[in-house]
Prior knowledge:
The complex is a heterodimer of chains A (589) and B (160). With 589 residues, chain A is of the alpha/beta class. Chain A has 5 domains: 8-101, Glutaredoxin, CATH 3.40.30.10; 124-332, Rossmann fold (3-Layer(aba) Sandwich), CATH 3.40.50.11540; 343-426, Ubiquitin-like (UB roll), CATH 3.10.20.600; 431-520, de novo design (two linked rop proteins), CATH 1.20.1440.230; 533-588, Alpha-Beta Plaits. Helices cover 39% and strands 15% of the residues of chain A. Chain A has 24 helices and 18 strands. Chain B is α+β, with helices and mostly antiparallel strands and 160 residues long. Chain B has 2 domains: 8-66, no CATH class; 78-159, Glutaredoxin. Helix content of chain B is 47%, strand content 11%. In chain B, strands 2-1-3-4 form a 4-stranded mixed sheet, with helices on one face. In chain B, helix 1 (8-20) packs across helix 3 and helix 6 runs parallel beside helix 7. Chain B is elongated and about 50 Å long. Chains A and B meet through helix 1, strand 10, strand 14, helix 17 and helix 24 of A and helix 2, helix 4, helix 5, helix 6 and strand 4 of B.
Amino acid sequence: MAGTKLKIKKVKVGLGTCGIAAGASQVYQELESLGKKEGFEVGKVGCLGLCYREPLINIEGSFGRVVLGDISPSELKGAWEDIKNGYFPEEKIIFDGQNYRDNFITRQKRIVLRNVGLIDPEDIEEYLACNGYKGLERVLTWEPEKVLTEVEKSGLRGRGGAGFPTGLKWKLTRAAPGDTKYIICNADEGDPGAFMDRSILEGDPHSVVEGMIIAGYAVGASEGYIYVRAEYPLAVKRIEKALKQAEKKGFLGENILGSKFSFKIKIKEGAGAFVCGEETALIASIEGKRGMPRLRPPFPANRGLWGKPTSINNVETFANIPWIILHGAEEFASIGTEDSKGTKVFALAGRVKKTGLVEVPMGTSLKEIIFDIGGGIKEDKKFKAVQIGGPSGGCLPDKLLETPVEYRALTETGAIMGSGGMIVLDETSCMVDLARYFLTFIQSESCGKCVPCRVGTKRMLEMLNRLTEGELSSEEIPKLEALAHVVRTASLCGLGQTAPNPVLTTLKYFFSEYDMHAKEKRCPAGVCTGLTTFVINEKVCTGCGICVKHCVVKAISGEKKKPHRIDVEKCVKCGLCLINCPFDAIYKV
Amino acid sequence: MGEEKITAKKREQLKKTIARFSGQGEVIALLLAIQREEGFLSRSVLEQISEEKNIPLSELYGVATFYSQFSLHPRGKYVIRVCQGTACHVQGATKIAESLKQELGIGEGETTHDRMFTLEYVNCLGCCSLAPVLVVNDLGVQAKMTSAKVRKLVRELRRR
Lengths: 589, 160
């Protein structure tokens, strides 16, 4: 291409929530003014998932498609002259028209994310051009039972975390007595550290909508709900648009594509409650009540929304469905392991070099994801643990890095597959602090209905708080563990039953850190403020005196323009000096 | 609970909003819509909904206090929400929150006297790759925050 003047037809900018935060809106504006002059269209796509290279642009024309990353709005104008003539800045090329140049993406297998980052999520035509709604068309020529068999044969299991077989869930809902049935899409991605569902909804909402319509046909439902977090305003906007477009084209509404099947979908916004990810709590929330779970059975397949049979599936589960219908159950089942079929999308973040969306075949090892795809640890620090499954999951150490990602193998370690959050931790993280962090979260999100969760998590948190303050003796640690088992066994719903996992896995794999906090009153990572000392790095300190002004107890002294010192006896560890030092000269040990 | 008396004109306006949500189980959507208009849910507003929808006030209060999105107190012109997600936590969210507390002189869930700022925590904004992040008034997500960037942001907002 180099040297020939390119016919650029359209440039698309990655406008997901994170792309926008990285400055993609400015890139979009810049391109709009360039487009007017040069005569190309400017459009948007969702997030391709290479978050560490945002903002991203797709350049399309007679030459095909090229994807560039690390675009800054200020450089764009200057670089455009070269781009126009086929000279793409080497270091910015992600996709050169034939191949992806970044092994972050070449090592992936994209089924769920097949269109994310490539098509305009607000334009149904682009989805249609990628075999969109072809799955639905095909299904409408089948008997509903055939759809159930096909999904069951594929081996697809729920991607929300628990891994219940999707085909079976649909079958149970279809078999339940009653004329009115519902489909619910659980888009209440509440796990801190997870953003797969947000990216799918922002990048390819139609794939989820199509999956839901097929589910409706298979179970005999005529109404569906998408329950989405209010914290995801852009996702809400894009689903709204997708639903309108699908209705206009006759994929939603009465007598879909001339068949006897009718289906409509409504959006229900959540209002910020983690427990609403649990299916019975979610149903209560759609009904307009406090989102409190109830005992199961009866399961939603028999008694769900407004007492009617209901199938609740996760965003990622639905996005798999059209692909399975089009490519066949056998092809899907050929990917993955005996226990877990297909692929899984992970949101890779934390102290890893390359962060973003990773979709890999089930059975891929944690090591491959973190080191081969994620490029290893930031600043080449030492790997400490990987946290998977959020507050319901666990922390796994380096000796378990060979563990394959599949439901059974991960459950055996004490963690769970979860919805796909994967946070990498290095030596700067304290495992006791992390356990305390998750318990703080769970304790404030516990709905309060059952005692083991309401009181149990509170008492566990109190013990962990005392441990991080150096006030818990090592004799009390077994008590913490015993209580964790009680909460796990006796809680009413999944939130409480899995809440102790972060504590139990860190106790199991990082006991020495607990021991150091309790016996030596020391936090080896220097995170727990109660156990650390504030120190000034004399090599970095310029003696500006800002810390002296901020210190309430007058613990800092020193001559002007000479390194200062902190008097450990006087210091109350408020941390104001550390926050306010413009040179980052203050640290904790 | 915020005790703001409402005018007849506002009552009419609320009536219209309430009428828009007539379907089954629309309470949460209704409360979200009203909060987006009013900034918070005052007692008199909840009383009006209770009357017109024939829902006990206690039930509305139960819903409004269950979900973290709802506020029963007036909030500032700018609501700053600091992400408390895992990726943000391991990359310094606590430091960001502390800087904001210091810069604004308020704690979590509080509003400054001049009603300019409210400081809140949010569970996870799903922008883990750009951690630590925060969001102002549900507009854009502010990426890769530092104490210095926090100070700059607050000063910019004050000047607006």
